[in-house]
Every structure is written in C-alpha cells, then in structure tokens.
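Sequence in, structure out.
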Amino acid sequence: MPKVLTAAQVKRFHDEGYLAPVPIVSPEKMNQIRERLEGFEHARPDLKKKLYQGPNVLFPWLYDLTFEPRLAGVATDLLGPNVFCSTTAFRIKEPGDEAYIAWHQDGFYVTYKPIWVTSILAFTDQTPLHGCVQVVPGSHKEGLLDHEETYDGKNILTRGQRITTPFDASRAIHLQPKAGELVVFHHLTIHGSQPNWSKERRINMLIDLLPTNAKREGSRESATLIAGVDTYNYFDHEPRPPEDLDAAVERQRQVLINRNEKSYAGSKHVSPVLQ
C-alpha cells in the first residue's frame, strides 16, 4: 500500500502523467528554509548562479531536505522502495521577470531508463500570475517528441530547448501549489511556464527522482540514496556536503562537470554553475 499517496493518486499519476499538489512540509518550515536560501543570496550574490544546478551538493540543509519523510514517501509510492535523488535545481522568477520556460519534456536530454520523475517543491505560493507550472495531461503517453535548442535568453531551460512536434497545448492545465507543496510529473510529460507578472518572487526547487534500477549511458554519475537500498551499483553515492562552503563549491563543480558531459553534449550552452 502507498505510504503517503492514495491508490487513486498513484493511478492518476500513471494515467495522467502528473500529480499535484502534495503537502510535503509545513508552510512555517518552508518559510524558514526560504529565509535561509535568501540569506545566502544576499550574503553571497557572487555565488547565486550555483543555485541553478545541484544545490543539494552545495548546502547540507538542502541535502537534508531531499530526505524529508513525505518526499521520500511520495517517491517510493510512485517508483518503488529504493529511490535516488539524482540532482536538484532552483528555478526562480523575480517579480515582473519576463523569463519563461518553453514547452518541453525533461526526458529529451536526460535519459534515465526505464523511468524517472521530476518533482518540484514550491517555496512560494503560486498562481498563473506567478508563472506557475503548466502540464499537458496524458502527454507522457505520446512518447518522446522532437525538440530544438534555442538561444532565447528569456527561456531559462538548460539548453533553451522547446518542442517542435505539433501538440494540443489547449489541453494544458495550471498547477498551483502553495509553499511546502509538491508537484510531480513523468519525465515525458509536456510542461512549461509563463513569466512572473506578479509582485512576488516565484521560487521552485526541482528534485529529480529515479528508482535505483534506472540507468543512463555514459560516464558514471553520483546520486543521493533517499530511500531503501541500492543493489544495482549504477551510481556513486553522494555524501552530505561539507560545512565549508569553498570545499562544497569545488565538490559541486566536479559533480556537475561529470554530469554535464551528457546533459550538455553537443551544445554550445554551458551551465551557469560552471560559468
């Protein structure tokens, strides 16, 4: 039986390719974590780009967040008892920012097989005015669509990617989580988001989850075992980051150089973390 989700929710995820919202942490705890995040941004503006990819490798308190019991419960309900967090990322839209996320599928450039899911932990309440995530229900059943890489500076995806295969975007729905709630979707679910036209920040933390039997071709990567045991040995186990920020920055750089050999293969784009 599921630990956090109902059987109906698990079925809905597999049928529709997404699930939302799922309460994970209290609004009070999320506000404390947000204050810590924004404290870092204010104290070290020179390192803000490090939040774009792999911040769980940078900060012990974000590493610990991936072990939140209800998050691990959702992961095991959907993927089985043994689950890795492969990476995390922040996607932050400032008030009035014209940045957007084009329609895409996460599985186009990140190819863990047989399955993985993207989860998004909302640090702030979100509505369409904030540029909340939109998904196309059931689109994960259409398979992998064609994408192209763009150089639109307002498209904040890793490679500025967007879908080129025609699809029915009119079926898209807005997912409107509140702070501390989770959005989860299949790696082939079509999704995107509009600019933040509100007067508030929109802060999302992406947490990629995969069963321990999932595999990706190419050089070996590291991942964080957040539930169960690993009997496959496809990944090195990521340790808790050191408290020393300089040491953590160097560790993050090494982790992402290795991972991005595949994620950015053949691209002129470079992760902001490595710029």
